UniProtKB/TrEMBL annotation, chains A, B:
Keyword Transferase belongs to the record: yes
Top-level taxonomy: Bacteria, Bacillati, Bacillota, Bacilli, Bacillales
Name recorded for this polypeptide: Ribosomal protein S18 acetylase RimI
UniProt-listed PANTHER family: N-ACETYLTRANSFERASE, UPF0039 PROTEIN C11D3.02C
InterPro entries, per the entry: Acyl_CoA_acyltransferase (IPR016181), GNAT_dom (IPR000182)
GO molecular-function terms, A-Z: acyltransferase activity, transferring groups other than amino-acyl groups
PROSITE patterns, A to Z: GNAT
SUPFAM superfamilies tied to this protein: Acyl-CoA N-acyltransferases (Nat) (SSF55729)
Keywords attached to this entry: Acyltransferase, Ribonucleoprotein, Ribosomal protein, Transferase
Keyword set includes Ribonucleoprotein: yes
Occurrences of domain N-acetyltransferase (ranges): 5-153
GO CC terms in record: ribosome
Family annotation (Pfam families): Acetyltransf_1
């Protein structure tokens, strides 16, 4: 499977499949709205991401099917001697391919992408209720050195 | 003090003072490089932030002195029904004004700024060794629902 997986930036025609994947998730199902026609705000967000050189919505494709998605944001920070960071968010894999290493391939790909963008750090947060996710990222070398705080507006 | 505090985007002439503040911190002193002339990468990062409409380096000014700094990044996400988020990073206050509510004013200001940018969420991570910071953010309404993971490249 590894050899035939392809990563590319999402196109507008992929957004439906991406939202379907986001909604098919214990947390996602409570906050996404996968209906047809797809709510306009998804396409607006897609357009904002696509037009921003520091944001990339990446899909993993296998046999012409989208089997995974993640978003990478590249941010110039004044801290760490003006270092750029890559933030990974919204990582999901299709339920049909779970346990086949797709997530590992996706994060490994994202780390390499961060290197090509000269980032000194890759960061992400994961909901504390996702115990498997924490172990997954730690196995890939991430360290849970920080608390991730959120404030809903 | 509250009434006379002013918030504005940093200018190039502020960068020296900002880096001085970042370096005068238990964690910052191990990773910043506050020397003269200031390493070029700080100015490059400043320029990248200033030219990006989704990044703002904000300074708090009181009696013509910079007494605080933080960076806000606005990110369009496909998750949460295509919602924008504000990420706060690199929050520091001058040692001369600690305990005077400057940090609270800064975060409160940043939350309002996030609202004007139509964000549905404000997020940040804080190093687990900064116990006071966690309590500070929780008092302001943030919830530590996530693990914050980092991978150095």
């Amino acid at each position: 499977m590894d050899n035939n997986m392809l990563f590319r930036e999402a196109e507008e025609t992929d957004v439906d499949e991406v939202v379907k994947m986001l909604a098919n998730d214990p947390l996602g199902k409570t906050r996404e709205n996968y209906i047809h026609p797809l709510p306009d705000q998804y396409l607006k967000a897609f357009e904002a991401i696509r037009s921003d050189p520091n944001n990339e919505l990446i899909v993993a494709v296998w046999e012409n099917q989208i089997i995974g998605v993640l978003q990478i944001t590249f941010t110039p920070y004044i801290t760490h001697q003006g270092g750029w960071r890559a933030t990974i968010e919204g990582v999901r894999t299709s339920e049909y391919v779970r346990g086949k290493g797709v997530g590992t391939n996706m994060i490994t790909w994202a780390i390499e992408r961060a290197k090509t963008r000269n980032c000194h750090l890759v960061q992400l947060t994961t909901d504390k209720t996702r115990k498997d996710a924490l172990r997954f990222y730690e196995k890939l070398g991430f360290q849970a050195t920080h608390e991730g705080l959120k404030l809903k507006l």
